[in-house]
Amino acid sequence: MAIDHLSQKEKFFADLAERRAVEIASTTLTVRRKRRSEPGDEATAASNSKQERTTMSTDTATAVSAAWCEVLGVPQAADDQNFFDLGGDSLMAIMFMERIESGLNIEFPMETLFADGGYGAVLAECIARQPGIPG
């Protein structure tokens, strides 16, 4: 395709259309027009899914740790720490819960914090409630 006479915008869209056509042409379709799995697709999908879960878990851990440290005034969070042993009270629990819920966009059950109080239990509950992470 000769695109020397086209504007920059037209060249961009022509290139995009050409790349998309190649992508579509290289996809194998079944009779029902569904994409057929190619050898290795399952392994690649499983690997990508595991990587996404790990990334989400890491992001969740970072957010929970930041909220824990901010509310309790500790330098870092550890699995063996207890919210109430570190000086946390009911008002701080509400502040912590609000930070977790707004930061992770989840509903955090207050009873998890009051029943156990441990950072590890809180983190596990937050990870389990994240969409896309199987609990």
Task: Give a concise summary.
By secondary structure, this protein is mainly alpha-helical. It has helices at about 10-25, 40-70, 90-105, 110-115, 120-130.
Task: Kindly describe this structure.
- The chain has 135 residues and is mostly helical.
- It has a single domain, classed as Non-ribosomal Peptide Synthetase Peptidyl Carrier Protein, Chain A (Orthogonal Bundle), CATH 1.10.1200.
- The protein is 61% helix and 0% strand.
- It is built from 5 helices and no strands.
- Helix 2 packs antiparallel against helix 3 and helix 2 crosses helix 5.
- The protein starts with 7 loop residues before the first helix and ends in a 6-residue tail after the last helix.
The number of helical elements comes to 5
Low-confidence stretches: 28-32, 45-53
Strand fraction:
under 5%
What's the CATH topology label? Non-ribosomal Peptide Synthetase Peptidyl Carrier Protein, Chain A
Number of domains: 1
Architecture, CATH level 2? Orthogonal Bundle
Morphology: elongated
CATH class: Mainly Alpha
Largest sheet: none
Please count the beta strands (DSSP E, at least 2 residues each): 0
Classified in CATH, the superfamily is: ACP-like
CA-to-CA gap between the ends?
51 Å
Order of helices and strands: HHHHH
- Estimate the helix proportion, in percent: 55-70%
Q: What would you report as the Rg, rounded to the nearest angstrom?
A: 24 Å
Average pLDDT over all residues: 76
> How would you classify the quaternary structure?
single chain
